[in-house]
Specification:
Blueprint (H helix, E strand, L loop, with lengths): L4 H6 L31
Protein name: Protein YhfH
Pfam family, one: YhfH
InterPro entries: YhfH-like
Amino acid sequence: MLENVIDFFKNLPAKTCVSCGKEIEEQHECYSNKCDECNIV
């Protein structure tokens, strides 16, 4: 049976920054993989 889409996104694990390992404070399904401190432009 197919899982509800909303439940799928709610159950995604927290993302962590690829540079420092800190948990990223944003939506888990976004494309960014660095935290704000490491993502300096």
